[in-house]
Amino acid sequence: MISKILLTLAVIGVAWLVIRHRQQSLNEPARISRPVSKEKRSNRSIKWLSYGLLTLMISASLIYLGWQVEQGYRLVTVKVVDAQTGRSVSYIARRMDVDDRHFVTQDGREIIVADGERIELSAYNPQQLP
Length: 130
Hints:
The chain is of the alpha+beta class and 130 residues long. Helices cover 47% and strands 25% of the residues.
């Protein structure tokens, strides 16, 4: 997750450096003064299109990041089922606290699942648990 954030920040930083470099080269005094051509106008539209695309990418990244965080804080019902006996025990945990073979319940207990057991996740429903 942190790598996605760092990659997004790196892309933003590179884009900012490129834009700053182009701004500086445009601000240098021109040797020959020429009237604004159609090519210059098309460059402006490309520039605005680039800004719009960059804004769209940053917005989409932030929305996706917020969605991932929101999903992580959702409560889920974790059902640990013994494969040999079929006996099951249910717990409540946050989605981000559930890993491969262990999880932390909402009341702070750390549960480590044995090799002969499996974990089943389902949406939290208060009426399901006793």
